Amino acid sequence: xxxxxxxxxxxxxxxxxxxxxxxxxxxxxxxxxxxxxxxxxxxxxxxxxxxxxxxxxxxxxxxxxxxxxxxxxxxxxxxxxxxxxxxxxxxxxxxxxxxxxxxxxxxxxxxxxxxxxxxxxxxxxxxxxxxxxxxxxxxxxxxxxxxxxxxxxxxxxxxxxxxxxxxxxxxxxxxxxxxxxxxxxxxxxxxxxxxxxxxxxxxxxxxxxxxxxxxxxxxxxxxxxxxxxxxxxxxxxxxxxxxxxxxxxxxxxxxxxxxxxxxxxxxxxxxxxxxxxxxxxxxxxxxxxxxxxxxxxxxxxxxxxxxxxxxxxxxxxxxxxxxxxxxxxxxxxxxxxxxxxxxxxxxxxxxxxxxxxxxxxxxxxxxxxxxxxxxxxxxxxxxxxxxxxxxxxxxxxxxxxxxxxxxxxxxxxxxxxxxxxxxxxxxxxxxxxxxxxxxxxxxxxxxxxxxxxxxxxxxxxxxxxxxxxxxxxxxxxxxxxxxxxxxxxxxxxxxxxxxxxxxxx
Length: 505
Known about the structure:
The chain is α/β, with parallel strands linked by helices. The protein has two domains: 41-133 and 288-504, Zn peptidases (Aminopeptidase, 3-Layer(aba) Sandwich), CATH 3.40.630.10; 136-285, Glucose Oxidase, domain 1 (3-Layer(bba) Sandwich). It has helices spanning 7-27, 31-34, 73-92, 105-121, 184-187, 211-215, 217-223, 257-269, 322-340, 365-372, 374-377, 419-431, 478-495, 500-504; strands at 39-40, 99-100, 124-132, 136-148, 151-154, 159-160, 172-178, 196-201, 228-233, 252-255, 277-287, 291-299, 308-312, 317-318, 350-355, 381-387, 393-398, 401-408, 412-416, 456-460. Strands 5-4-11-7-8-9-10-6 form an eight-stranded mixed β-sheet, sandwiched between helices. It has a seven-stranded mixed β-sheet with strand order 3-12-15-13-16-20-19. It has a three-stranded antiparallel β-sheet with strand order 1-18-17, with no helix packed on it. A hairpin with a 2-residue loop joins strand 17 and strand 18 (401-408). The longest helix is centred in the first third of the chain and has 21 residues, at 7-27. It is elongated, with a radius of gyration of 25 Å.
């Protein structure tokens, strides 16, 4: 029979063990000043996340891959920073709805910047393919305001869901109601008609994939008569989050969890006869006559009749969009630089880049343009690579904080093609330490309309910072950019020794 120690002995033993540790910590460096604040609830008050130095990220090097050392993670990170700066300049020009938004001056500046980078890389036939845009949705201004402690308090995290309808010029003053996760049982016995409905949502693999989307909570709220919907993404802090078109016909916003906690407190403290009201203002314009473009260039093969490998990287973004998709553009540009250094006489296949205008708009312009032009784009193509979200630090969560780490975030992946292409691709990912899902799956991204038409590879990180205002350049480790881009370079070189039939059968 097993003996049991008296609990008091366990307590004394624990204290004896703990005290020296505590004393050692007292005499050590104060991590609050000597090291980054790796765990925090990001908000206007606390700022964004602090990431470890690029030099401290874990790396995996394997023998035989020294030739890819010229692919420079630091250079690529600088490209990410330059794209983020374009977005910040657009915000500083008094644009509340900001990023590298399709059809705007930031879009045009990004296209011109990318063309210049391609020319510097040694690419040839650098050009723009102009694309006329259908009517574009542009929120001009918005504000959500509640009475708190006798003062008007603005919800700083409010961000309109893409395509949301606006309010009248006067706005709307609505009674507030909270329905939890928005499940069918959460609505039972609740009258939401004509009210502003708060729904809490749990992020799954990323912000855009969340519980409210999965269970149809927004559709349920609208069907029951909601006059406005506030979707709370339950992540620590007070993040601004840009959702894709959520399909509602009432003003719909994302709000951060700190703002949601304020609303919870007001609802809890209010007398049952005194409803909590919120002022909702959203001014939306629908603009015609805009245009955008795809940026194209190539590193030509020795033969003008050669087959080609195509790298697609969408250019648009919400906020700084450092991972989505400044990282992918940086990867695509670095690949063009790498292959341009190979003497032309030794190039078996042409490598072509397409910087699409992207899919962050209702028309999903990048998707549509690729499909409509698929015959010319894919002519002689033997491989299609989607350079999208190609680098990111792993973000973890502890209690009420988000925590940064010193390793790269995991990638979802998909491969369309032969078993041999899959074997080569996955082995190369392993060699360069690409952490990824064990099983294929996840989003296909910008090439989804054409990914099944030729052999294709998708590697994408879509984590908890996706489409948020803290997906900044600091979240993109140079080591992660280097690993992904070097892996792609080796895959392309191995594919160049394979026939088209070997890639498809």
